[in-house]
Amino acid sequence: MDTALWHPFSDMAVVREDEFVLERGEDVWVYDAAGNRYLDATASLWYANVGHGRAEIADAAAEQMRKLAGYSIFGDFTNEPARALAGRLAGLAPMPDAKVFLTTGGGEAIDSAVKIARRYHVVRGQPERVHVISRTNSYHGTNGIGTGVAGIEANRTGFGEILPSSSRVAYDSVDALRDEIRRVGPERVAAFLFEPVIGAGGVLAPPEGYVQAVVDVCREYGVLVIADAVICGFGRLGTWFGVERWGVEPDLITFAKGVTSGYLPLGGVVVHGRVAEPFWAESGTTLRHGATYSGHPACCAAALANIDIIERDNLLQRGQLLEGELAAALQPLAAHPLVREVRAGVGLLAAVELQPDLFERLPSAVADLSLLIRQRGVLTRTLAKALAVSPPLTIQRPEINEIAQAFAAGLDELALKAGS
Ligand SMILES: Cc1ncc(COP(=O)(O)O)c(C=O)c1O
């Protein structure tokens, strides 16, 4: 049946009469309208970290909705869930005296972080510091600034020039960042934006020493460091904000997804006390920025209940424990003739990348493989040349093996289709 719903990142000419309708979820399982069960190997879009169907989160949100569903936090207005969530996240953040700016998702968090960084330089008397450097292959959402800094070329081009004062450097090179800061002129660079492990751009872990080294380079030149933990946070890398793995202290951290495990939309920016200080200490430095639903009480109540579950069920530790298991289960796929590489081992996420020559014979190879795996009851996420895996942190070992088996069988069938 034809649909009126325009799906994001989707070829509507194909999808319009062929939608895949999901109806309910329970832990790592989701069910379609016909009652078929699927293993959610990607936690939806990398976010259902505590799994599906948690009644406690639904109850917390519903209780808050009955009390006060929504109210703005502009000016001196606030509500208890928003205050409590900010306090809790500030306490968990790997930076002293953190402040928390709340948004409705990750893309809005990116735009907020970059605007805070630019305003910080303005109030500190360096208004020419506006340039933002990001990395090739990076994904920072599809709001204005996130589109402007996108390291996945196809997501940035075709919309006209969105953020002229920005540039990208090779995702794996510290020297490239240093050279770019010098080329632009350090006095013009506001911030460097990076995902600890690149997600949508292919699941690319940083080279050894990279994270510490880029933070050092930024410190040397007075450039603010924005860690985009939208995917990496809330247990995906086994810690609250991902970056703790490398022992660094960013100036700003963006988060979303796992903060509510997607039960309601929420994101935000954790800001180092030093960066927030001029705004908090001096009147007249108002940040003229923020969306209607910032600090939405029902969303914040859902986040608090979600964080309770992560703590109570030791899901950060579980993420650490399972990252090796996931890597071990998927690594044998690297021997398959259609597979170029399996990337896994840093966090509970992985990518299985296909051989480049396969795309000459079968341009739709990634989508085809995803469908073949879905037909075996496992949902994966298509990337440009790979399929991603990032299951809920509650996944069990037999289910991890089920993912690997579905990949192996799907790859064999794809090989038949590709005539190899
Ligand atoms: C690293 C990263 N940053 C930002 C975003 C944007 O988040 P949202 O889709 O909630 O706007 C995403 C979304 O996938 C992401 O992966």
If you had to describe this structure to a student in words, what would you say it looks like?
Pfam families: Aminotran_3. Belongs to the class-III pyridoxal-phosphate-dependent aminotransferase family. Keywords: Aminotransferase, Antibiotic biosynthesis, Pyridoxal phosphate, Transferase. The chain is 39% helix and 17% strand. The chain is α/β, with parallel strands linked by helices and 420 residues long. It folds into 2 domains: 12-54 and 317-418, Aspartate Aminotransferase, domain 1 (Alpha-Beta Complex); 56-312, 3-Layer(aba) Sandwich (Aspartate Aminotransferase, domain 2), CATH 3.40.640.10. The radius of gyration is 21 Å and the shape is globular. The chain starts with 11 loop residues before the first helix and ends with a helix. Pyridoxal-5'-phosphate is lined by residues 45, 105-107, 110, 139-141, 195, 199-200, 228, 230-231, 256, 267.
Write a concise synopsis of the structure shown.
The protein has 420 residues and is of the alpha/beta class. It folds into 2 domains: 12-54 and 317-418, Aspartate Aminotransferase, domain 1 (Alpha-Beta Complex), CATH 3.90.1150; 56-312, Aspartate Aminotransferase, domain 2 (3-Layer(aba) Sandwich). Helices cover 39% and strands 17% of the residues.
